[in-house]
Each structure stands twice: as C-alpha cells, then as structure tokens.
Amino acid sequence: MSNEKNIANSLATAIAAHCSEFEKSPEFADMVRKHVTSLYEEAIKDTFRWGEFPRAVKKALEEALPANISELVDLPRYNLLMAKELAATWEGNAVSDRLVTSMREHVLEFVKSHEVPQYIKASDLWAAFVKDHEEEAAQQGWEAPSVLMAYSDYGSFMVGLEKAPSSYSIRSRSKDHAFQFDNNLYFTKQTAYEERETVDVLHDGKPVWQLFSGALEGDALGKKVHQFRGDFERLVAALYYGDSLLVLDADDADEIGYPGVY
Question: Nearest Cα to 137, choosing from 171, 160, 162, 172?
C-alpha cells in the first residue's frame, strides 16, 4: 500500500513539474492568447446580437430610414442618426466627455453645411461645375468644359459634362451621346394631373425636373459610395439622394465657359 502511495505522489509531482514548465512555454502563451481572443470576439458578437443596444439601433434606423434605401449614402440624416447612437454608446461606456463633444460638433457642422434644398437652379448647377474645375482650367489653358445637352420627345433630357474641352483629346471628340461622358445626368420632367389633363410642375414659372439616373467621374449613382467633394457633386447628391428638384432656369449648359474667356 505504501509503495502505491509513493508512486502516486511521484506521478503527481512529475505532472506538477511538467505543468509548471509548460506554463512557461510559448505554446501555453499562444493557447491562452487564442482563448482570450475568442472570449472577446464572442462577447462583442453577443453585444451586437442580443440585449438593448442592437434593439435600440434597429428601432432608430427603422424610424429614420428614407423611402429609397440608396438615400442612406452620405446623407446628413443618416450621419446624424449614427452619431447620436455612437455618442450614447460612448457616454454609457465612460468615454471622455471631450471626445463625445468633439464628435458632436463635427457632425453638426457637417449637417449644417449639407442641408438639402427643395429646389436647385440649373444655372447654379452649371456654375458649380465650372467653379470646381476653373483652377485646373486656368493652368491647362482650357476655355470651356466639354458639355452635351440633349432633349427627348418623352419629357426628359440628358446632359454630359467633362472638365476638359472636346478638342483636348481624340477620346472626347468622339463622344456624341451624353451617357458617354464621365459625368452624365438624366432628368425627367415633373408633371401633375389637373382638371383631367397633364400639366407641367412649375417653380417660379420654370419647369421642374427630377434626376432619375446618372454618373459622377464614370461611377453610376447609387452603385457605390461617393464622397461628393466639390459643390457640383454635392448638388448632384441632393438631386439624386435628397429628393431635391431641378428648376430649369438655364437650358444652355453646352454654352458655359471658364472665367477669363472672351
């Protein structure tokens, strides 16, 4: 009996020694690291999957979602919504007041500078395109951008715009349709049914148009996230994503030119 007890004690001592050595090894450290990582991953997944936080975010999103899901791209309403959710989450997790305050200030500044107007004048849209490229035009000696404006017989028109004049390259000279331009916008006329007849919707006596489709710098609207950096692109964003309407007070986009040209 004593012999068996000695063997058991020796075995326990050997196992303890091996365990002690193993705990000092890189293999043990790696094992612990993997399990800790897994623990945090599961905890984070559960945070976003269960409880009050995901329900609150879902409810807020449902209340703020516009009719067209594509309107969520780069819109102040969406950015402000997410900012509020982040602020609430940060405050609840003891993130510094200075960081939360700074974030709020940046978002409010963004929202204020990106207010979506109900109507946008065509003259302002053409002028914005010129303004965004006038510095490069002066450096390159361009007199006017390349613009093609075409109307259809079905209450629509399309305009194609590129910053360089058509004479600048063979590629530009070969374009005879607006959709071939890097920037192209397709508008449909807005109408209303009054006293058993269809009439044009007017604003300040001018016809009103809705941006149906288009592209900026070769990328189709609604297909990818745009940054909308210049004034022209921001106006296009308001027309396409923000439901602004175009007032056609100037139908001579193909006659615009850069400053200093006589």
Answer: 162
Helix (H) or strand (E) holding 247: strand 245-247
Whether the CB-CB separation of 188 and 212 falls below 8 Å is answered with: yes
Three-state SS sequence of 171-239 = HHHCCCCHHHCCEEEEEEECEEEECCEEEECEECCEEEEEEEEEEECCEECCCCCCCCCCHHHHHHHHH
The encoded tokens of residue 31 equal: 């094992």
Identify residue 159 by its one-letter amino acid code. V
Helix (H) / strand (E) containing 38: helix 26-49
| 73-99 tens-digit pLDDT | 444 545 554 555 555 555 555 445 555
Q: Is 6 helix (H, G, I), strand (E, B) or coil?
A: helix
Helix, strand, coil % over all residues of the chain, rounded to 5: 55, 20, 30
**Beta strands 197-200 and 191-194: pairing type?**
antiparallel
pTM: 0.56
Q: Which amino acid is at 51?
A: G
- Contact predicate 192/199, CB 8 Å: yes
Side chain identity at residue 143, one-letter code: E
